Amino acid sequence: ASFTVVDDPRGNTLGRGSRVTLHLKEDAHDYLSEDKLKESAKKYSQFIQFPIYVKVQKEVDVEAEEDDDDDDDKEDEEEKKDDVETKDEEEKEEEEEKKPKKKTVFEWEQVNTQKAIWLRAKEDVTEEEYNEFYKSISKDYLDPLAYTHFNAEGE
User: Does the reported pTM lie above 0.70?
Assistant: First the structure.
């Protein structure tokens, strides 16, 4: 595995931050799934304070576009005079037409929403979180023998 760091040939298009572009082999396309990306980002950025976003696909309910109602008001007044039953049937048809439709939308979702362990109060951190933090930092598979939590400020 190798990597290359290059300046963006288009100039400073991001303004701030970094963009990571991955080129995958043919047998590694399972890493392109949304769930696998989220899982990897959570695993390797669990105690990083900088926000990491993944672009996700969501389906949203969208109301059907309504036509101009000015002409319909005049027709409704005439229908009230004609027949009540016919109007009720037409209203039911209009309600069926106004059912929400599904629309695909892409949004950026923050993956690492957990605050860093050393920035939280001692009472808010569980023993399991301490153990996971130790394992992620030390690359050890065993739980720590002991741990302590303290706040320090300096210049």
Answer: no
pLDDT in tens, 89-121: 666 566 556 667 888 888 888 887 777 788 888
CB 143 within 8 A of CB 126: no
With DSSP H G I counted as helix, E B as strand and the rest as coil, what are the percentages for the chain, rounded to 5? 40, 15, 45
Token look-up 């939308």 returns 105
Tokens 């009720």: give the residue. 88
Q: CA 119 to CA 117: how far, in whole Å?
A: 5
Count of alpha carbons within 13 Å of 60, Cβ hemisphere only?
10
CA distance 144 to 134: 7
Q: Distance (Å, rounded) from C-alpha 76 to C-alpha 66?
A: 16
Q: What is the pLDDT of residues 40-74, one digit of tens each?
A: 887 777 777 788 888 888 888 877 554 444 445 54
**What are the backbone angles phi and psi of residue 96, rounded to the nearest 5°?**
-65, -35
3-class secondary-structure state, position 119: helix
